[in-house]
Amino acid sequence: MDISRFAGHDGAQLAYQETGVGRPLILLHGFMGTGSNWLDRGPGDLLAAQGFRLVLPDLRGHGDSAGPHDPLAYPPDVLADDGLALIEHLGLGPGQYDLGGYSLGGRIVARLLARGAEPGRAVVAGQGLAKVSGPQGGGETQRALAALVDGAVLDPGSTAAKIADWVAQLGVDPWAMLHVLGSLVPTPEDRLREITTPTLVVIGDQDERSDADELAALLPAGRYVRVPGDHGDAFATPEFGAALQAFLTDRPDRPDRADQPDSDVRAEP
């Protein structure tokens, strides 16, 4: 696919790709990933075949998007700012598109909804309430990135050392990743209660984010689905794709899709 560009909130050149024809569906990838992950490992091809025009951006600091080392390029909530800029760049008005994200992407979907984005439907996947509404960044990932940036030695076999090895294998820029983590802001619970967009919260049944059901319960039009797998594996399962397909196509404005069979997922009340 060809790479297209749009200007982020500060003019930074950010990349996105498109595939499929039909209703626009913007899909946001996870931390240290790229938009193409939705096609390489995720259900992108399945969704494109269901009549969606997939828009797959590389978040700031990731993939083919700008990833400056200047911390001023990563103000608070910059990824949500960039998402709003993309929606404007595409010329999409309220209800004219759908929006989804996995892991970090799911967190940014919540931010976009809280900031006034108006998709017809939204998907927050691979996320729970604490990660969305609580402290952002920190933890072993931030420690590993800081060690890579500073040239510090991590204890062999430690969690941070394993994360540092993973960063090296992926070939991502630890400076940019550290700044991305520092830009994240929470979406408070009272704001989540005000989001009326129909939103699917989907999580792997072995994901450590075990409070995804609590996130769905706070959303007035939230739905909760569990699929097999942990945080890394659930994204690639057929059940994950089927859950998104069922949610995004079962709607009155797409009567041609309303008779699709239900997915083989375990839905929770």
What report would you give on this structure?
With 269 residues, this protein is an alpha/beta fold. 36% of the residues lie in helices and 17% in strands. The protein contains 11 helices and 9 strands. The protein has helices at 37-40, 44-49, 78-90, 104-114, 129-133, 139-150, 159-170, 174-183, 189-192, 212-218, 238-249, and strands spanning 4-7, 13-19, 23-28, 52-57, 98-102, 122-125, 199-204, 222-227, 266-268. A 9-stranded mixed beta sheet has the order 1-2-4-3-5-6-7-8-9, with helices on both faces. Helix 6 packs across helix 8 (174-183). The longest helix is centred in the first third of the chain and has 13 residues, at 78-90. The protein starts with a strand and ends with a strand.
Number of strands: 9
**How much is the radius of gyration in Å?**
18 Å
Shape: globular
**Strand arrangement, major sheet:** 1-2-4-3-5-6-7-8-9
